[in-house]
Design brief:
Shape: elongated
Helix content: 10-25%
Strand content: 35-45%
Radius of gyration: 21 Å
Number of helices: 5
Largest sheet: 6 strands, antiparallel
């Protein structure tokens, strides 16, 4: 939304852009790329994670020949998220020259598992008009995965141990993209789990294992993705030691195929 306000003004953060969830989903299986772009501004991301810590570099590019003034970024963790995620951002210069790019570094610490995403509000003045944009930052719980290699018998033994209903989340869904084995493998590795070869007796199935690292607990995770190319459907099953993690990982990963 573009609102004209007096020169000194800033305003309450806008609601997240309508496609904020779609933009976030684009980064579930990758760490780098363009998060947002309109006629004035391009926002790129590079991020890296290790155990329960992460660092995200945001690049704000001014696509115009005119300065952005009063350029301010505000990062917030709504509701419960402030107890689950610690995000700290370095301040940025208030002026972005025409054609220039500014960088912001965000340090991230995962305290416990989480479902919501941090909000990034960007406000600046362009040609006398205040711009006010809110995005969801693509920090998702799978970023804190450590892949785990395991043999077939270990996988199925662990799978049986995680057999109570609240430890499992399952989703059956239609393929939204062509069913390509190599693309699927790349997405599962990008998701953060180890891809286990020769574990499932059905060669068409994909299985993965990993541990989600948070400051308070570590959550062991197993996943199984069963494609049915005739029906163009998938069945995704997640078993983890924590119900909220099973549900969140299942919801995030099922959006990717």
């Amino acid at each position: 939304a573009v609102t004209a306000v007096p020169a000194a003004g800033s305003e309450d953060p806008a609601l997240p852009v309508p496609d904020a969830d779609d933009l976030l989903n684009k980064f579930v299986c990758k760490n780098n790329g363009v998060l947002f772009e309109n006629q004035l501004l391009q926002i790129g991301i590079k991020s890296e994670y290790r155990q329960n810590l992460g660092r995200m570099y945001l690049f704000f590019g001014n696509k115009t020949s005119v300065q952005f003034l009063n350029f301010t970024l505000n990062l917030s963790c709504p509701g419960e998220l402030q107890n689950e995620l610690n995000v700290q951002a370095k301040p940025v210069e208030p002026v972005v020259e025409g054609g220039a790019q500014v960088q912001q570094v965000i340090n991230i610490e995962c305290l416990s598992d989480f479902t919501e995403a941090p909000l990034l509000n960007i406000q600046f003045r362009y040609g006398g008009t205040l711009q006010n944009i809110t995005l969801k930052l693509p920090i998702t719980v799978n970023k804190f995965f450590q892949p785990t290699e395991m043999a077939s018998e270990d996988f199925f033994q662990r799978w049986k141990q995680l057999s109570s209903p609240q430890q499992e989340a399952q989703k059956i869904f239609k393929a939204n993209h062509p069913m390509d084995t190599e693309v699927t493998k790349a997405k599962l590795i990008g998701f953060g789990s180890a891809l286990l070869q020769d574990v499932d007796p059905n060669r068409d199935n994909f299985v993965g294992a990993g541990v989600i690292h948070t400051k308070s607990i570590q959550v062991g995770c197993l996943l199984r993705l069963e494609p049915n190319s005739q029906a163009q459907m998938y069945r995704l099953t997640l078993r983890t030691s924590k119900e909220t993690v099973s549900k969140r990982l299942c919801a995030l990963l099922s959006q990717q195929f």
